[in-house]
Amino acid sequence: MSKSSNFFQIAIDGPVAAGKGTVSRLLAEKLNFLYVDTGAMYRAAALLAMQNNLSFDQEDEIASLIANSKLEMRNPEGDKEADGRLTTLILNGEDTSWAIRTIRCSDGASKVATLAKIRKILVEKQKKIAETQNVVMEGRDITFKVLPEADLKIFLTADLKIRAHRRHLQYLIKGIDKTLEEVIVEVKERDERDMSRQIDPLHPTADSWILDSSQLSIGEVVDSIVDKVQTMIEEKNGIHEKK
After folding, report:
1. CA-to-CA distance for 30 and 183, rounded, in angstroms?
2. Are 66 and 44 in contact (CB under 8 A)?
């Protein structure tokens, strides 16, 4: 089956705190691709629910809000956006790049992500983005749901305790008071929720490159993917030249 788009698509799935966001952002920067953080879109849905005093299980109401909202995503631009963000998300004209990064928004995102109507709307938005430019798109259903025909599929993972340690460090940097033991429980519960949900549960596809980052630095992970992509592009161009 051939892709509907001629643009190069890199699809990255994996569990929480595997490093998907940082790896994808740096990878996109090196390749001059757009980084698409699909998790940010589910966070935006959760933020809309919070702003409208809705509980995270009010599927129809949240779906209506997200369907009628304008979501824009781009790589950070200029000094104003050089504040540590991985991506810039504009929701209805407002920069919500940091507003969606609260613990409550994160928890809400994983809950609204189990709702079929919301997933359907956001998957369509994600597909449309990938039809217009080269992308590095990451999330938990990209390789098999959003971009099943992606040029390169990656399942980025790491040992649970290592992922929990990474998340704990992120919390410390943000001044969030949680013990490592609490974060281990949190990450384990998130894994169970992602892998057991009825709609599009997290799993590696048969054709995904399973990349374990447990013993690798972010730079090593990015470099290995860049090397693979460059080889794929060279081979693709070589085939075209022969024709």
Report:
1. 32
2. yes
User: Does residue 235 belong to any structural domain of this protein?
Assistant: no
pLDDT tens, 213-229? 999 999 999 999 999 99
CA 19, 22, 26, 27 torsion-angle sign: positive
Instruction: Name the nearest CA neighbour of 36 among 5, 6, 12.
Output: 12
Both tokens assigned to 45: 């849905």
Confidence (pLDDT) at 163? 98
Residues 6+ away with beta carbon under 8 Å from 112: 42, 45, 46, 49, 56, 62, 118
Domain count of the chain?
Answer: 2
Tell which residue, 203, 42, 227, 60, has the closest CA to residue 126: 42
225 is written with which tokens?
């993917």
